[in-house]
Amino acid sequence: MTAAEPRRFRPSLWATLITVPAVLVMLGLGTWQMQRLEWKEDLVRRVEQRLHAAPIPLPTTIADPEALEFRPVTVAGRFLNDKEMLLVARPRQGQAGYELLTPLQRPAADGGGVVLVNRGFLPMDKRAPASRPESRVEGPVTVTGLVRLPQPAGWLQPGNRPGAESWMRLDPPAMAASAGLETVAPLAVEATPDPGRGNAPLNGIQPLVELPNNHRQYAFTWYSLAATLIVVYVLSQRRRTGPAS
């Protein structure tokens, strides 16, 4: 019976030159994801604090919009119903539809200017203003809602087409230009739902803040790939030392 030939770890130059940098990159990416995890957890805590804070008046001058994101605010003015816009919305309870954005003209005493107000969901059959006369609120109003900032378009998300009948995503500057508005705030206020109206059209927006936090899984994946590559490298570079005696 012939004994198994002994093997010794004798890595080739090319295998080492390929494996070592790859492992270092994977370890670096895993560490970067752990750092991102710490940042995201801190962000989630700050957002939760903002969401549950008492509403504040929307400042007249908005120098730092990000400082207001997800903050409950109040804003007073008059709706410019003739310049309302439709924003394509996610389906609600199986219904396709839109969110109604109505510009709110702030009084001169509050510095003037216009703020876009997201007033709630409209089913497809309520698209035409004539089908929802209750939406054309006249006179002074005070809106309480959540500040939302424009988000970059997703990889597969269609872009906005100024002049189209509806918008794909929030874009205050482009929307203002399309509607012929000046001095528009770089954000929108999502009106808070009124429990007394149930699921009625134009009953505000239920706060939905999505902050995906998959960094721990990503870090585990990168570290696992690095460990797997090390094992493959070691096993593949074991070579026979010669015939057994």
Automatic annotation (TrEMBL):
Family (UniProt): Belongs to the SURF1 family.
Pfam family, one: SURF1
Transmembrane segments: 12-32, 218-236
Organism of this sequence: Azospirillum himalayense
Protein's recorded name: SURF1-like protein
Subcellular location: Cell membrane; Membrane
PANTHER family listed in its UniProt record: SURFEIT LOCUS PROTEIN (PTHR23427), SURFEIT LOCUS PROTEIN 1 (PTHR23427:SF2)
Keywords per UniProt: Cell membrane, Membrane, Transmembrane, Transmembrane helix
Membrane topology: Multi-pass membrane protein
InterPro entries named among the record's database cross-references: Surf1/Shy1, Surf1/Surf4
